[in-house]
Design brief:
7 helices; mainly alpha; 262 residues
Length: 262
């Protein structure tokens, strides 16, 4: 008759539940995989499958009891680690959508919104268009596979233990967020610059010909200039997105390494 002790069952449960918490948090917060349109059972099944593959390769302390106070703190750490990794990559998509939002406001498309199923909210049409391009670029460069590879490496950089993470890791994540939003403004600058020149020209035209109906003439001109500038920028957008995504994975590696270094 096969029998198991309570200590063995606790160790087996801990070896599965701790990595599962980190993997589930990553899947819930990561772009594309964390899309709200993806059924929850698919996300949970994917997390279970990855955990079954990854858990046997991990060295988890046997004295960690998930039901104890220390075990609960470790569980919270794993959830935070997964959320941080997913958030670092999602910042790239947020920066791209912010670029479309800024450009759309200048083009006069600020009130033209569509439902965004990924964020379960309404986004300007240009922001959603650039977000779709970012998602396709992410899949084309196998970003989802690199994300899973970064997840597997994170268990070695920031192993599962009762040691709290270093505060320097959160500072690196905050700096990455600031850098991504500055990149968003830089991406939108060509469109904003072209539209600013267009609006200045329309303003001068209005002063020289007051009888001209600027609202009837200016809006189509602004839209045309914006779309032409966007068409010229699109060939350069995908390579920039690839650079941003690779930087995001480098940030994940640094954050996990700093979190595990004391």
């Amino acid at each position: 008759m096969i029998s198991f002790t309570s200590a063995q069952l606790t160790a087996w449960f801990a070896a599965f539940i701790f990595p599962l918490a980190r993997i589930l948090a990553l899947i819930a917060s990561a772009p594309i995989l964390g899309n709200r349109q993806v059924p929850a059972r698919i996300k949970v099944a994917l997390a279970f499958a990855i955990t079954v593959i990854v858990a046997p390769t991990l060295d988890i302390p046997t004295d960690l009891d998930p039901a104890s106070a220390q075990g609960l703190l470790v569980l919270v750490q794993q959830i935070m680690a997964g959320l941080v990794m997913g958030f670092a990559i999602r910042l790239v998509f947020t920066a791209v959508e912010m670029t479309g939002d800024l450009a759309g406001m200048q083009m006069g498309l600020g009130f033209a919104t569509f439902y965004d199923p990924q964020n379960a909210s309404y986004l300007p049409v240009l922001a959603q268009f650039l977000g779709i391009i970012a998602a396709l670029t992410f899949l084309a460069m196998d970003g989802h596979l690199y994300m899973l590879a970064a997840l597997a490496d994170s268990f070695h950089s920031f192993p599962i233990s009762a040691t709290p993470p270093s505060a320097g890791a959160f500072r690196t994540l905050v700096e990455w967020g600031g850098a991504m939003f500055s990149h968003a403004v830089q991406l939108a600058l060509p469109l904003i610059g072209a539209l600013l020149i267009t609006n200045l020209a329309l303003g001068i035209l209005t002063r020289s010909a007051p009888q001209l109906n600027i609202f009837a003439v200016g809006f189509p001109i602004t839209l045309a200039v914006g779309f032409i500038t966007l068409m010229l920028l699109l060939p350069f957008l995908a390579p920039l997105l690839g650079v941003f995504v690779r930087e995001g994975f480098d940030v994940i590696s640094r954050v996990m390494l700093q979190a595990g270094t004391h």
